[in-house]
Amino acid sequence: MKHRLGIYIVLSLLLLALLAVVSLYMGVYVFEKHSIIDVFKGIIYNDGSIDAADRFVLMDLRLPRIVMGILIGSALAVSGTCLQGMFRNPLATPDLIGITAGASLFAAVAIVLGVYIKPYIPEVFHFSFLSLMAFVGAFLTMILVYRISTQNGRTNVVMMLLTGVAITSLGFAVMGLLIYFSKEEQLRDLTFWNLGSLAGATWTKNGILAVIITVAYFFLINKGKALNAMMLGEHDAQHLGIPVERIKKQIILLTALMVGTCVAFAGTIGFVGLIVPYILRLVFKSNYHLILPMSAIFGSILLLVADTISRTIAPPSEIPIGVLTAFMGAPIFITILIRNRNAL
Amino acid sequence: MLEAQNISYAHRKFSILENIDVSVNYGELLVIVGPNGAGKSTLLSVLANELARHEEPILFKKKAFKEWGDKDLAHSKAKFSQSNSHDIPLSAKDVVMMGRYPYFASIPQKKDQDATQKAMEETDVAALASRDYNSLSGGEKQRVHLARVLAQLDNEVENKMVFLDEPLNNLDVLHQHRILHTIKKFTQNGNAAIMVLHDLNLAAQFADRVMLLKKGKIVAHDVPAAVFTKEIISRVYNFPCIVCPNPVNKNPLIIFGT
C-alpha cells in the first residue's frame, strides 16, 4: 500500500481523456475543422461556425457513444472486480457466472412479451421496463449462483462456473425460442443483445447510467480494504471489524443493478470484468485497495478502445464489440484456468 | 472479562458442545486442551462470536457482543484462526497490515506502519516483509497471521482479549516459545487470552488455568496442577501416562506411553 494511488488515478484519467479525444476524431465522417478547441468553441458559443452535419455527428453520434463506452466499460470492470472479491476467485465475472446471461434473458423476454405487458403497467415505467427486467434477471441469477456455489463462506469454483454455464445455456434456449416467435423488428433487437453494441447510445441512456454508476460507486469504490480482508476468510474479516454480510448484500444488489443496466442498453459485452482486473493484478498483485478504483478507469479505457476499433476497422460497417472483447478475454480465461489448474 | 453460561452447540443435530460455562478474568491465560473432536475449536469460535447463537448472550467486558460497534470490538478483541487461507496474492507485509484495517480509512498512518513493523519483529517475520505471502512455508504463513493479530491489538485500549486456535502448529521450538512468551506478556498487562493447544506440557508451563474438554463436555477446569494429574489425563486421552514435577519450574510434566 506504499503505492501512490492518487498519482496512478490521475495518470490513467489523463490517458483516458487523451484516448477519448482521439476516438472523437476517428471514424468515417471527417470534421471540417480539425482542432478540438475550435469545434467545441463553435458548439458552445453556437455562432454558426460549425455546420449542422458536424454538429450532429459530434453531439448526437460520437460523443454519446464515447461517453457510453466510458460508463459501461467502467461499470462492467468494477462489477467484475467486486464479484471476484466476494467469491474470492479471479474467474468470478458477470459473464462467466451467468449474470449477464440472466440479465439478457429477462431483457429478451421484456422485448418480445413487452408488447403484451405494456398496456397493464403505468406509462412512466415503459421507458425503464427493459432495464428493470434486466436488473431483475441479473439479481435473481446472482442470488441463485451464490446460494448454489457458496457454503459457509467458501466458494466452490467449479459449482460457480457450472451454474453460470447452466444459466447461459438456459438463456440460449429461451433466446432461440423467442427468435422463433418474434416479429421482424423484435428480431433485430434480439440480435443486438446477443452481440453487444454501443451504437444505441443516447444522452438519456447515458444520464441513467451515470446516476446508477454514481450511486453504486458511492458504496462500492472504497471497499478495497474490506475485499482484501475477505481474502483471509469471512470470519477473520469480521474480526477485523468488516461488516461482511452487509458488504456482500451491497455488492450483490449494486453489481446486479450495474450489469442489468449495461445489458439493457448495450447488450452482452463479454469479458470486460475478466480482462481489466486480470491486467491490474499483474501490476498491483491482488490488492483491491488499488485495483478496485483503478478498474473503474481501465474498464473505461478498454471499452473505449475496443469500441473505437470496432467502428473504424472495417468501414463503413461495424464489427460487434463483443467479438473484440471476446478475442481478448478468451485467452485470458484460458490462462487463468491453467494457472489455477491445481486449485480447481 | 468474558462470561458465557450454558453454551451448547450442535451441527445438524449432532451435538458438539453441551452446557459449557466459561469465565475468563482480567490478566488470565486460559488454555483449552482435549483429544481430537472434543469441540475445542468450536468452543473458541462460539466464544469469539463467530457462530450465530440464540441462547444467553456472551458478555465481553460486561456487554453482549451485539451491543458492541464493529470497530470498537475490533480494537478490543482479535482471533487467530486455525484454517488460514493459503491463497492471498499479496506481500507478507500487506497481510500483516490488514490487522491495522480497523485503524485507518484509506492510507496507513505512521503508527500503523510502526505497529506492523513491531508485530513482524515480534513473530520474527520482518525479514519476509516483501516476500509473496503465497511463497511462504506453512510455519512462516502462520507467523505472518500471528503478527497480523498482534498488530490489530497494538493500541491504547485497556483489557483486550485474544483468541488463538492452535497457534503453535507448524512452528519450530524456538518460535513456539517466542509466541507463548509474547502472549504471556500480553496477558500480564491486564489483557486476557484463550488459546487452544495440543501440547500439554506447554499448557502446563504457560497457562493460568486449563480447561480440559472431552466430547463436548468439561472434564476439568482449574489451575494446571489440578487438571494435569495422572488419573485425569490417562482417562481422557485413553493412553497411559505419568505426571511428575518439572525439574526446572515445578509445573506438572506429563510423560506419555509409560
From TrEMBL, chain A:
Pfam families: FecCD. Gene3D superfamilies: ABC transporter involved in vitamin B12 uptake, BtuC (1.10.3470.10). The chain crosses the membrane at residues 7-31, 66-84, 96-118, 124-146, 158-181, 201-221, 251-280, 286-306, 318-338. It is found in: Cell membrane. One of its GO terms (biological process) is siderophore-iron import into cell. InterPro entries: ABC_BtuC-like, ABC_transptr_permease_BtuC. One of its GO terms (cellular component) is plasma membrane. It is a multi-pass membrane protein. It comes from the Bacteria. CDD domains: TM_ABC_iron-siderophores_like (cd06550). One of its GO terms (molecular function) is transmembrane transporter activity. Keywords: Cell membrane, Membrane, Transmembrane, Transmembrane helix, Transport. PANTHER family: ABC TRANSPORTER PERMEASE PROTEIN MJ0876-RELATED, FERRIC ENTEROBACTIN TRANSPORT SYSTEM PERMEASE PROTEIN. Belongs to the binding-protein-dependent transport system permease family. FecCD subfamily. This is Iron ABC transporter. It comes from Flavobacterium rivuli WB 3.3-2 = DSM 21788.
UniProtKB/TrEMBL annotation, chain B:
InterPro entries: AAA+_ATPase (IPR003593), ABC_transporter-like_ATP-bd (IPR003439), P-loop_NTPase (IPR027417). Coiled coil: none annotated. Keywords: ATP-binding, Nucleotide-binding, Translocase, Transport. Part of the ABC transporter complex HmuTUV involved in hemin import. Responsible for energy coupling to the transport system. This is Heme ABC transporter ATP-binding protein. SUPFAM superfamilies: P-loop containing nucleoside triphosphate hydrolases (SSF52540). Pfam families: ABC_tran. The keyword Translocase applies. PANTHER family: HEMIN IMPORT ATP-BINDING PROTEIN HMUV. Residues 2-240 form the ABC transporter domain. NCBIfam families: PRK13548.1 (NF010068). One of its GO terms (molecular function) is ATP hydrolysis activity.
